[in-house]
Write a structure and sequence with these properties.
Blueprint (H helix, E strand, L loop, with lengths): L8 E5 L4 H13 L4 E3 L10 H13 L5 E6 L3 H7 L7 E3 L3 H9 L5 E5 L5 H13 L6 H6 L18
Parallel strand pairs: 1-2, 1-3, 3-5, 4-5
Helix pairs in contact: 2-3, 4-5
The protein binds D-ribose (RB5).
Length: about 160
């Protein structure tokens, strides 16, 4: 399943990710996609967990179909977002992992580090993340085993990858 092309995408960043967050959100707006920008909106130093929690909550309650989080490294954002059961936040540095986190992990939040990724790669990573379908099958079974206490068995043919 692909993230619907007309669905809202939530954005969040701290001061370390503000510029990249704003540029990526603007690209989506230009393409006609609804954007939910949950801040930060200024260069003042802020705490990244506040924005990671806000975006995770927006994805979980359905205000957004997926999220994009940016901080300096992407690490704090991804750690925080992944504290929420049902959030699969992938910290991505290249286009290949942007594709794989959708195909295999059904990632619903993309985390990027403004201080470690170039603009062209970040833009392509976002584009690939938003347009790549989850492959389901054996990967769905594995996802069902991630959240502690939520181990469901999904019948499916055994995969080797
Ligand atoms: C802020 O200086 C920086 O620590 C933050 O943006 C992020 O990289 C944390 O993981």
């Amino acid at each position: 399943m692909t993230i619907p092309p007309d669905a809202t995408i939530a954005f969040g960043a701290d001061h370390g990710g503000l510029i990249l967050k704003d540029r990526l959100a603007e690209e989506l707006r230009k393409a006609g996609r609804p954007v939910l920008d949950l801040g930060t909106h200024a260069t003042a130093s802020v705490d990244y967990p506040d924005y990671a929690h806000a975006v995770a909550q927006a994805v979980l309650d359905g205000r957004a179909a997926a999220g994009i989080l940016v901080c300096g490294s992407g690490i704090g954002m991804s750690i925080t977002a992944n504290r929420h059961a049902g959030i699969r936040c992938a910290l991505v540095h290249d286009v290949t992992t942007a594709r794989l986190c959708r195909q295999h992990n059904n990632a619903n939040i993309l985390a990027l580090g403004e201080r470690v990724i170039g603009w062209e790669v970040a833009l392509e990573a976002m584009t690939v993340f938003l347009s790549t379908a989850f492959e389901g099958g054996r990967h769905a079974r594995r996802l069902s085993r991630i959240d502690i206490g939520r181990i469901d068995v999904i019948d499916d043919e055994e995969g080797i990858n």
